[in-house]
Amino acid sequence: MEFNVNSPVLFLLAGIIVAIVLAQSLWFLVKAWRRGREIGMPMEKLRRIAIGTAIFTIAPATAIVISVITLSKKLGIPLPWMRLSVVGAITYETPAAANALDAMGLEWAKVTGLDATQYVTVAAVMTMGIMVGIWLVPVIGKKLIGGMINLEKRDKKWGEIFSASLFLGMISAFLGYVFSDFSTVFRGDTSGLIAPLVMFVSAAMMGVCALGMKLFNWKWMNDYALPISLLAGMASAIPITAWLG
Amino acid sequence: MKKKLSYIDSVHRDGRIWNLFVMVILILFPVAVMLIFRAGIDWRGFIQGFLATAPMFWAVGVIETFTYVPMLGAGGSYLAFVTGNITNLKAPAALNALELAGADIKTEEGEIVSTIAIGVSSIVTTLIIVLGVILITPLTPVLNSPVLAPAFDQILPALFGGLGVVYIARNWKIAIAPVLLMLILFIAIPSLGSVVSIMVPVGVVFTLVVSRILYKKNLL
Lengths: 245, 220
What we know:
- The complex is a heterodimer of chains A (245) and B (220).
- Chain A has 245 residues and is an all-alpha fold.
- Chain A folds into 3 domains: 8-131, no CATH class; 138-178, no CATH class; 179-245.
- Chain A has helices at 8-38, 43-75, 78-85, 90-103, 116-128, 133-154, 156-178, 194-216, 221-244.
- Chain A is globular, with a radius of gyration of 22 Å.
- The mean pLDDT of chain A is 92.
- Chain B starts with 6 loop residues before the first helix and ends with a helix.
- Chains A and B meet through helix 1, helix 2, helix 3, helix 4 and helix 5 of A and helix 1, helix 2, helix 3, helix 4 and helix 5 of B.
């Protein structure tokens, strides 16, 4: 069979893998939903969580589609589609593919087509280069979670502080990341202000949503506050970039 | 008589089976391409490419496992580590859902909420990507348009602005030190922006140490 990076067979293979992962998501979703009902969680609450999450997911998922489009120019559609639906993220897949091409004497920026051997090599490096969490969670996940629960049993207050600290540790790293281009401002380049300003708009919108809930008793706003602040931040990036970029 | 598994034990059993199954399937993709197209693999290219990629990303994978599993719970972790995009999508989705439900991840309710959030997020993401792949020709000029590009470039600041303000406002005593540390580090060393995955556990460990000290001094 003649090889092509967009061969229908590759679509079929990628589609089978994506379908299996979709089945896993459905399996866990149904299992958790049923258990939620068993322990008396109201249907309305479960529905609110699901709908709120689905709406929140739309914008970041659209950004992943852009990553698929970007990678498809070099690797065809099926491989980026599969990799970005399963395990991968653009921050990993591009360097992995570029490293594989580089090792074969090819340059990422100049590649316009791959033969079957090059494609297999790139796919193998992308697959094996990040194959950690998928097996490490089954190996140590139970012990890690058991440790957390024991911590809570020994000292409830510290257990709660421990959880909050985990979340805040992650959030603080990303808040710092937003300021990683800030030093350009000291050299007269205002583009380093774009990300902090976008973050500020998003945070302010979250504040407006909280105010709406408090002043006007808009309880529904609680479910959509994060998607609203996300979209407001993203929308503000357009004029802010035009102004400062 | 066989003992009935608890919910959480059955989640671990199912998670182990699913994740190891998906791992095998993923490895079979390049093997299947080799067999179908009667192609070989460039072993030198593979080994060199793997050695250039794996040390960094395996280290990140190990660190992420220790960092995110306690945040996402069992079901959420098994799913998130298969479906990917943890920092920019699955973890914020789980955090937001836990916040909405007023649930703690260490409780069974928190476990369920996190799993539902990550499950729904994974399904919606998969379906949107499928739609994107089907409509790739008409969508490409729209999504790649210079007008919309800044919005998608700034998705992380837009995401963590809204999420951050909620958590920081609620736990400001814990938040002050790590936020200040990270601001100083990222402003002083801009290149850290490319290794934010490694800075997450740094932030987590530092926050835990500060929280422990504050807790011991009865300041929390």
